[in-house]
Amino acid sequence: MEKKSTPIGWLNVLFMICLLLPVLILLMMPGGTMMGAFLWLPIVLLLCFWMIASMAAAARGEQQEETDHTIDDGVRMISDGEQPDAIRAVMDVRVATQQHSAGIFRGRLTAPADEALMRLQSDLGENVVPMIQQDEELGTAIVLMNRPTDESVLERPTRPWLHWLLFGLTFLTTTWAGALHQGVNLLEQPSEIAVGLWYSVGLLLILGVHEMGHYFMARHHGLNVSPPFFIPVPFALGTFGAFIQMKSPTRNRRALFDVAVAGPLAGLVVAIPALLIGLQTTEVLPPDAEPASAMMGHGTSAGSSLLFALISKIALGDQLQDGYLLQLSPLAFAGWLGLLVTALNLMPIGQLDGGHMARAMFGRRVGETISSVGMWSLFLLAIFVWPGLLFFALFIYFIAGRGIPPLNDITPISPGRRWIGYATFVILALILIPLPHKFWHAAEIYCPYL
């Protein structure tokens, strides 16, 4: 029988077109400059991402409809005689229903959640995916779902050429952006490409180590995960970052937490040394100095962040006086961006690293509440504190929806992991909170909120 074609291939083509579209627009602009498109190019990209997300959702819907076309869309009760023996062996079932293709059994577990999950997976076989979730009324819900349609789609082999292509494009766009930050247009002066390399290499190293932290921790927990996808853009910072694709759900909240926290901590291991080294070649500007005209040359206040202030004082010592600004070198700017990227990823929102950490630490209900508060807080910060966050807020709003819950969403994480989570969120606060007023003069660091 002929197999019905799926739109997955077309989605890959559209994904590549959306990544290359800004490059084509840039090259077609008069004079090869990008500044005139600085405001509307992000809007074009957001629309592209929205279109891809919509088509991907439609594709998933078609695949699910193809799988469930023989199943009644209604909800029906499952009688005691129809309930699988494996369920009754691990749960005192009070309510059992079938919704679409999923069987939902609610009640009280008679065995520890980890043990119950192992027994369900062993007894039900590979064609059924059991999930143990929290239930507000009866304590626990076991959800049995048919394994997704075509395993060949989920187990699709990694295509190294795509990852290396995206990495190469991102290397070019970040080198372009790094040179432009120094006032050099590589389309007009291609021989000056070395100008942007310190920024490009530093930033890609930070992003790459961040994602490889996720990757190796996921592999440690036996998850099916892709290598990093880098996202090139030919304006602003030269990239929207990188991500890995999780092809299988996490087994429990411990694995969810470990994979989430590994990325930011690994990225900081590179970002902080890059910042310390880059600050050695950073120019300290007195209050009456005229900053350079390049994008990185307007001067940065060390007091805008507690952590940045501490690192700046360690690196520069007495050179950093009250009222002085920092004209960041390319490597220092990459390190500063590393702190910013870490802070954005640690925001406890949706599928961001911080969102996964919050869910793993506090459970589904509290995690979703924290996520909603975090999303609105980010928009309020963008409106009333720094308008530059608005683009990131919109970007996060589009991509940071609810993720797939762990198979065992009941068993809490260990106290040690919880303390690591608290410490990581303290790092988030240290990056976002400016130096308090009473410490300005004691630290001899200028704060922009005076």
From TrEMBL:
Residues 200-374 form the Peptidase M50 domain. Its cofactor is Zn(2+). The chain crosses the membrane at residues 6-27, 39-59, 161-181, 225-244, 256-279, 333-352, 373-399, 419-435. It is a multi-pass membrane protein. It is found in: Membrane. It comes from the Bacteria. Its main location: membrane. Keywords: Hydrolase, Membrane, Protease, Transit peptide, Transmembrane, Transmembrane helix. InterPro entries: EGY1-like (IPR044838), Peptidase_M50 (IPR008915). Belongs to the peptidase M50B family. PANTHER family: ZINC METALLOPROTEASE EGY1, ZINC METALLOPROTEASE EGY1, CHLOROPLASTIC-RELATED. This is Peptidase M50 domain-containing protein. It comes from Novipirellula rosea.
